[in-house]
Design goal:
This protein has 937 residues and is of the alpha+beta class. It has a domain of 211 residues: Orthogonal Bundle (di-copper center containing domain from catechol oxidase), CATH 1.10.1280.10. The protein has 23 helices and 28 strands.
Length: 937
């Protein structure tokens, strides 16, 4: 009975994206297609077990049906390669690092997409499943299912069940082999007593990870994170259907033509290159929060010359042919005689060209023309040339910096033929995020984007303010992380004999499941209290979470550390005149997704719908391809991991035009009038229309002085520095310290949580209760009772700070909180909330969300439709937004509902004046962690 309830909750997929306007039950056509997808991807390590599809694929002839393809020449060319044996053999590893393999999978994908009708597509897919390399088939087939109009509503099974050996340690896969060899095959088909037999394998292995990385293996080796990134990697090679060279005349599904190519995207800033940047920047920010919370040191920088690789890695993964994934030794030195030395020269050259483009302000087209980087599409263009996967404006000159770097750092061994080939974990989308050097590489790549962003004019007060909108306070419920149980089908880990499957079609093999623990967080709620002088229809609210203190325990500089903030949510809201209480639940977050249903669950639910027992609801792409929702919060601590929420409200699509510079960087600024101006907020608009100095021709930098109530604010900023600090060891604000140090080759860390205390503030300042801030911050002299400091601030030496206490707040470890606890006291003020207990969020080993979307008759214990005032009515607007998005841009979860750059306002520097805007707000929060398993939600 419990399993049935889980099922009903799962396939409604309510909480995944509760803003979907309505439920759409799949018709019989979609149900049959869903079955075909499941059948084609089962037993992927062996032969196709479905007899009907196997016979179609085995006997299919292309010649009589060439007219059924949009590209018959491609079909004939590819078929010739197959017949002459010039394609990759089955059972050998695949990666896009090898040009010939990349070519083959691109051709196969074109053939799949070029099939004019579904029957032709199915026949072609069945043929490829029988004759083509398994990895190439899965990649091309998955790409086609995602893109084809006649497979919309059909979902792919979870990647970790299709190919378990890419997601689970070799020792786990070996246990599956051992069990099936000993018990599986000999008992298969003996009777009904084995029909329900399930063998469980507990997963408690990790890769060999250096420098304390094993402490965050729960994040880097999370199968949901790996599956998420595998589709991000796949989307890199997805082009708009019908796209010609450089994107001119491209078509968008359901959106018609969107202008002349990708550089005229409907939101300007938000093309594929911008998505590449933001998805990786956010992944890196999330990784840094995990490191910070566990007391690890900052990410180690790569050698600037690329010759010394100091990060060892042993993935403990194995390919289908029995070859282990290559590892990497510590202190790996690449000499001129090394087979990878040519890659060093290439990656240096590509990096130099990218830096030159940023410095000069333009990229070079194949025709030798200059294309400016300092324009609305500049970040997008830069991202495309760095990624270099088919979207680049000039791939011959700029190549693929990130791909070459992955080959170099992955340390795959030299090979003479495909049978010796073993690509590194870093080169595969399914395994890349497991390798610690992945984050070192993308830290270096993101620094290139930051270097570009530093040349953009900073956002001033006028650029970010929404006049008349004032965020008064933000209340956040308890943030609690824990490790939840989860089970994964491992049936595809070993090949199943096809003849046994045909003989005992209705008596499947005993199931093998992996039982593992995964980082999760309890549902939480926050309320944003806004006062507005006038209504703002279609306002967009963005919520970020970021660190309160840096790796040295110092309070962060919001501007300098803006790239450490992770986007939690973004949504539409109609602000009314007067007071607005914007209530938001964590399960509503856009850009995030819950777990994929298992193969068994999809199969059983589809079969039930075919028999008209229960409806099978169509799943939308945004419900599957976003960042894993359960990983949206970093792992807390028992004493509490201090973070902060950053909230900003924009006026929808009615925003001020941005300016792109480039400006003179601070190091070379003379602050003479032709370089630098100080203007009032009233004069800024006029200045922004003519920012170029008429005499010297350069773009002028500017600082705005906002005027509030005829009082010019001259003190306060969100900047922390040492220039005017007589004693650098003291801090304006009490800090939370994590000391990281190493000795004897073993990494250690400590958390320092002194007793909570009330900080005593002196001097002119603007500080809200309970560490809540908007406007200027932390100035004057601050004295904190009980503050103490020991030692110097160097890695490896301790210093002890004082943790800022929250008066009246208590956390009881065994109490599962929902929203704001009734009677909780914040500095003497009572906030009364209701504990909402939901069902369907946590059932045994599944985590799927509530039972139905808003609009359904029930909502299983959480909020029914219409509870969130102001949010009501935007479901269709959000769905329309996704309908106009290309699938390649939906994958990854990066969105901009108002056309602002992705990650706004952290996409460029923030001037001091920007923090005076009352539509920006900071809220101190604390994340706790409990390993105890809560049954109620």
């Amino acid at each position: 009975m419990r399993f049935s309830i889980v099922f009903l909750a799962l396939f409604a997929l309510a909480a995944a994206i509760p803003t979907t306007p309505k439920l759409h039950a799949a018709d019989q056509d979609i149900l049959k297609k869903q079955q075909h997808v499941i059948h084609l991807l089962e037993n992927i390590v062996g032969e196709l077990p479905h007899q009907y599809l196997y016979e179609i694929g085995y006997k299919y002839e292309f010649e009589p049906y060439l007219q059924n393809y949009e590209n018959p020449s491609v079909v004939k060319y590819y078929l010739g390669l197959v017949k002459t044996g010039h394609v990759q053999p089955k059972g050998t590893p695949f990666s896009v690092s090898v040009s010939q393999l990349r070519k083959e999978v691109a051709l196969l994908t074109q053939i799949f997409l070029g099939a004019k009708d579904y029957e032709t597509f199915l026949n072609t897919a069945a043929w490829a499943r029988v004759y083509v390399n398994q990895d190439q088939f899965v990649k091309a087939f998955s790409s086609a299912v995602i893109q084809r109009p006649d497979t919309q509503g059909v979902i792919l099974p979870p990647a970790y069940e299709v190919y378990p050996h890419y997601f689970f340690d070799t020792r786990i896969i070996q246990k599956v082999h051992d069990y099936m060899n000993q018990y599986g095959y000999e008992h298969h088909g003996e009777g009904e007593q084995h029909h329900e037999h399930v063998h469980h394998i507990h997963v408690n292995y990790t890769s060999y990870l250096p420098f304390g990385e094993n402490q965050i293996a729960y994040f880097t080796e999370d199968i949901g994170l790996s599956a998420y990134y595998s589709y991000v990697h796949l989307s890199s090679y997805i082009l708009h259907h019908g796209q010609q060279l450089h994107g001119y005349g491209q078509k968008y599904p359901q959106g018609g033509f969107k202008g002349e190519g990708e550089y005229h995207h409907h939101h300007g800033h938000v093309g594929h290159g911008a998505h590449f940047y933001y998805i990786h920047q956010q992944l890196l920010a999330r990784y840094n929060l995990e490191r910070l919370g566990q007391g690890l040191e900052p990410i180690r920088e790569l050698d600037n010359y690329w010759e010394h690789i100091e990060t060892p890695y042993k993935p403990h993964l194995r390919y289908l042919n029995g070859v282990n994934f290559p590892g990497r030794d510590e202190h790996h030195y690449i000499t001129p005689r090394h087979h990878n030395y040519e890659l060093i020269k290439l990656v240096r050259a590509l990096e130099r060209r990218i830096v030159d483009a940023i410095d000069l302000g333009h990229v070079i087209t194949p025709q030798g023309a200059f294309l400016s980087l300092y324009q609305p599409e500049g970040l997008n263009i830069l991202g495309q040339i760095i990624e270099g996967t088919g979207h680049s404006i000039n791939p011959r000159y700029y190549g693929s910096y990130q791909a070459v770097a992955k080959q170099l750092l992955g340390n795959a061994p030299e090979f003479n033929n495909i049978y010796e080939y073993s690509p590194s974990a870093l080169e595969l989308g399914q395994t890349a995020v497991r390798d610690p050097i992945f984050y070192q590489l993308y830290s270096k790549i993101i620094e290139l984007f930051h270097y570009y962003q530093e040349a953009l004019p900073a956002y001033q007060y006028n650029d970010v303010v929404v006049p008349g909108v004032h965020i008064e306070k933000v209340q956040v419920g308890d943030l609690v992380t824990y490790f939840s149980d989860y089970e994964v089908e491992l049936d595809n880990a070993v090949p199943h004999p096809v003849e046994h499957h045909h003989q005992h079609e209705h008596q499947p093999f005993p199931h093998v499941r992996a039982h593992l623990k995964r980082l999760d967080h309890k549902q939480y709620e926050y309320t944003i209290h806004v006062n507005a002088e006038k209504p703002v229809q279609g306002a967009v609210v963005r919520v970020y979470v970021g660190p309160k203190y840096n790796y040295d325990g110092q309070p962060i500089d919001i501007n300098v550390h803006r790239h450490y903030f992770f986007e939690l949510d973004q949504f539409y809201y109609d602000i009314v005149e007067g007071h607005n209480a914007i209530v938001r639940n964590s399960h509503q977050a856009t850009g995030q997704s819950y777990d994929w249903p298992s193969v068994q669950q999809i199969r059983e639910r589809v079969e039930g719908a075919i028999k008209s027992q229960n409806p099978y609801y169509i799943t939308y792409p945004q419900q599957l391809f976003g960042f894993p929702a359960r990983l949206s919060l970093p792992k807390g601590t028992k004493s509490g991991f201090p973070l902060q929420f950053f909230v900003i409200i924009t006026a929808g699509i009615h925003h001020q035009p941005e300016h792109y510079g480039p400006v003179v960087e601070e190091n070379w600024m003379t602050y003479q009038p032709h370089h630098y101006q100080i203007v009032s907020s009233e004069d800024y608009e006029q200045f922004a229309q003519h920012p170029v100095d008429k005499i010297h021709g350069g773009y002028q930098s500017v600082d705005v002085i906002p005027d509030f109530d005829n009082h010019v604010i001259t003190e306060g900023n969100w900047h922390w520095g040492y220039l005017y600090k007589k004693y650098p060891g003291s801090y304006y604000y009490p800090h939370w310290q994590q000391t990281h140090y190493s000795y004897g080759g073993e990494h250690h860390y400590e958390h320092h949580y002194p007793e909570h205390h009330e900080g005593q503030y002196h001097g002119e300042q603007h500080v809200e209760q309970h560490g809540e801030h908007h406007g200027e911050q932390y100035h004057g002299k601050h004295h904190h009772a009980g503050e103490q400091y020991h030692g110097e601030q160097y890695h490896g030496q301790q210093y002890h700070g004082v943790h800022h206490g929250y008066a009246g707040e208590q956390y009881h470890g065994k109490t599962p909180y929902h929203g704001v606890e009734q009677g909780k006291t914040y500095h003497g003020e009572q906030y009364h909330g209701t504990a909402h207990h939901g069902h369907g969020f946590e059932h045994e080993h599944e985590y799927y969300g509530s039972g139905h979307y808003p609009g359904a008759s029930e909502y299983h214990g959480t909020y029914p439709t219409g509870t969130y005032k102001g949010y009501q009515g935007h479901e269709e607007q959000l769905q329309q937004f996704y309908n106009n998005e290309f699938i390649g841009d939906i994958i990854g979860g990066a969105i901009s509902l108002d056309g602002k750059p992705l990650g706004y306002p952290f996409d460029r520097q923030l001037a001091h004046s920007a923090f005076y805007a009352h539509n920006i707000y900071l809220k101190d929060v604390v994340v706790y962690h409990h390993d105890e398993y809560f049954t109620e939600y």
